[in-house]
Amino acid sequence: MAGGRAETPRTALRQLRAAVVLFLAAGTAACTAPPAAPGPGSTGSGSGAATIAEGLDDPWSIAFLPDGSALVSENNTGLIKQLKDGRTNAAVPVPAELETTGEGGLLGLAVSQDFAKDNRLFVYFTTPQDNRVLSYRWEDGELTDGREVVTGIPKSRIHNGGRLEFGPDGYLYISTGEAGQRELSQDLASLGGKILRVTRDGDPAPGNPFPDSPVFSYGHRNVQGMAWDSEGRMWASEFGPDRDDELNLIEAGKNYGWPEVTGAPGDDRFVDAVVVWPSTAEASPSGLAIVDDVAWLAALRGERLWRVQLSGDKAGKPAAVLQGEYGRLRDVEAAADGRLWVLTNGGNPDRILAVSVK
User: Fold this and answer.
1) I want to staple 56 with a disulfide (CB 3.0 to 4.6 A). Which of 124, 327, 330, 350 is the partner?
2) CB–CB of 239/245 below 8 Å?
């Protein structure tokens, strides 16, 4: 199955999960240029990586707090772990009923840009009914005061999207998948297969391209990473089906083609991807970070970290680091010390790597 190539299906056992939660909590104190594609010479020599945290269970997303600690979501356990100096300070269950079957579960995190004042943490997760985004108050290792931001996002065993990022404009961007229903990506009335742009309360952000709609861009299959370059251009990584993984330059109101096209076929109806990985075995790009106009993409099936130099609306040839060294990579974020934090995925247990980008 195309959706299954990037994920390992999991079965939710809620009673067991509750017991594990108690145990852990008690025990923790549109581009017109031809798209770039990897070729025979695209594998880099690699960068040194240091393990800075271990013992994680299927981590999905990293978000940094102003005090320098990191919050990490664990997809299957439903825990948000706070890490400081490589140690787990807290392991907090999301106070909601999660469905962790397939690619669903606890997914993206985003910290409020006014966290020092409001202590709000935004969380994307799968329930038995839908995918949804809530905000919670995070304080002293506790989640309280849950508020709905966006609900009713289509969910399935596959293609649940899940990335959350605050843009330079101060609005919350949400990536959604089409939940295996391809037609939803082209349906502007559906939240599936889109990038959404909303206020912190979940209202459509001012200036959105479609009146009274949270939809920012559409025609997506399953966006997994979002980031902005130094000029405020938005980029997103996206899973292809059995071919054509993508790095896209995202523009308001544009159609990125799924399910009609993938990659960069030059069809004037849609926006071509800027970078295309013809073989999904090399990529399955998940989390995305941009540092000094270099895009870094964590690859699942590809088991490497891709480096892509950005220049305006164009991109250079991808080069791989950490190839085959640490298994599947799920997320990558820029830390305050200038290094990249990278989550491994499926390592049983998993870890966080710190990677120098200099």
Assistant:
1) 350
2) yes
Helix (H, G, I), strand (E, B) or coil at 328: strand
One digit per residue, the tens of pLDDT, for the chain of length 358 reads 334 444 443 433 333 343 333 333 333 333 335 677 654 333 333 458 999 999 999 999 999 999 999 999 999 999 999 999 889 999 999 999 999 999 999 999 999 999 999 999 999 999 999 999 999 999 999 999 999 999 999 999 999 999 999 999 999 999 999 999 999 999 999 999 999 999 999 999 999 999 999 999 999 999 999 999 999 999 999 999 999 999 999 999 999 999 999 999 999 999 999 999 999 999 999 999 999 999 999 999 999 999 999 999 999 999 999 999 999 999 999 999 999 999 999 888 999 999 998 7
Residue 73 sits at φ, ψ, to 5 deg, of -85, 140
Q: How do 164-166 and 215-218 pair as beta strands?
A: unpaired
The H or E element that residue 131 is part of is strand 131-139
- Which pair of structure tokens corresponds to residue 356? 């120098």
Length in residues, the chain = 358
> pTM score, two decimals?
0.89
CA 233 to centroid of chain Cα atoms: 17
Peptide bond into 285 cis (omega under 30): no
Burial (CB count <10 Å: 0-12, 13-18, 19+), residue 147: middle
Q: Closest Cα partner for 288 from 328, 325, 329, 331?
A: 331
